[in-house]
Design goal:
single chain, about 280 residues, alpha+beta, five-stranded mixed beta sheet, three-stranded antiparallel beta sheet, 13 strands, about 20% helix, about 30% strand
Length: about 280
């Protein structure tokens, strides 16, 4: 049975977005939590950017990373991006995600045997993520809604060549199964894998192999959604750090109804003058 409620941990020192459901947490309580968290931030030193890549550990795992890299490249997940595999220190990464779901006690069951093989399997798994369940319903004769409870599900429009014509398809996926970091504008961020990263930190483990993306645009960083921290916060003197998620004084915890994700897709007919020259692909004879 699908649970109706989930526990959320949210970073509290950088203001709260208005669109989130925070259960029974009152505005007054939220303001007080935020005020206390801001006082903690004000007392610590400004953020000093330091590369999270650990050269010695990366070299030690070179053969294993090379094998994983082949399967990651074949997945096409990072097509068009500049990326590499490296071991990083999670404590040196910033966070653009405001909140994460808390599962159990938030730690890993194998922290007493955190071998590199286990870390590789956790962060760079051979197998693709299991396919999430989607539901599709018609909202009108020319529109549909696709919904899922999976927080990592993706729906992409893909055009495939069939009999010489480009035919559109919707591709349903589970999102990237990998832990990812990214360099952008001189700072280093966790790009994907927040739940696993926070669980590692709670278990006392900070060194982990990741896919390191060298982002040229905010879109390549993956931080452009309205429910993430804005760019001015990420490049402030006191940006949110990934390790802040494990600090009770910097977070707000609450229980809310499980959130579902959805995509609205509509079909609209239009007519306009032909602009292609005779003989060009797609022009009428």
């Amino acid at each position: 049975m699908t649970p109706l409620f989930e526990t959320i941990r949210e970073l509290a020192a950088w203001g709260f977005d208005s669109e989130a459901d925070r259960g029974d947490t009152t505005p007054a309580a939220l303001e007080e939590i935020g005020r206390r968290a801001q006082a903690v931030i004000a007392a610590r030193t400004c953020w000093h950017t330091e590369s999270p890549i650990l050269a010695e550990e990366t070299s030690h795992l070179a053969d294993a990373l090379s094998l994983r890299g082949e399967s990651i490249a074949a997945s096409g997940e990072f097509r068009g991006l500049d990326w590499e595999l490296a071991v990083v220190d999670l404590r040196r990464l910033l966070a653009f995600q405001r909140r994460i779901e808390v599962c159990g006690n938030g730690t890993l069951p194998w922290n007493s045997d955190a071998s590199w093989e286990r870390r590789l399997d956790l962060a760079l798994p051979h197998a693709a993520a299991p396919s999430p369940q989607f539901s599709v319903r018609r909202s009108s004769p020319h529109a549909m809604q696709i919904e899922t409870l999976s927080p990592n599900a993706t729906v992409r429009l893909h055009c495939a060549d069939e009999a010489g014509q480009q035919m559109p398809h919707f591709v349903f996926g589970a999102g990237s199964p990998y832990m990812e970091a990214a360099a952008y504008r001189g700072r280093w961020f966790l790009r994907d894998g927040y739940h696993r990263s926070v669980a590692l930190l709670r278990s006392g483990i900070s060194q982990v192999p990741v896919v390191m993306v060298h982002a040229r645009l905010l879109a390549e960083l993956g931080a452009g959604k309205s429910w993430f921290f804005p760019e001015e916060t990420l490049f402030s003197e006191q940006p949110p750090r990934l390790a802040d998620f494990i600090e009770e004084s910097l977070t707000c915890c609450y229980t809310r109804r499980v959130q579902q994700r959805g995509w609205r897709i509509s079909l609209e007919e239009y007519r306009e003058p032909v602009t292609m020259t005779p003989g060009s692909k797609g022009a009428r004879a």
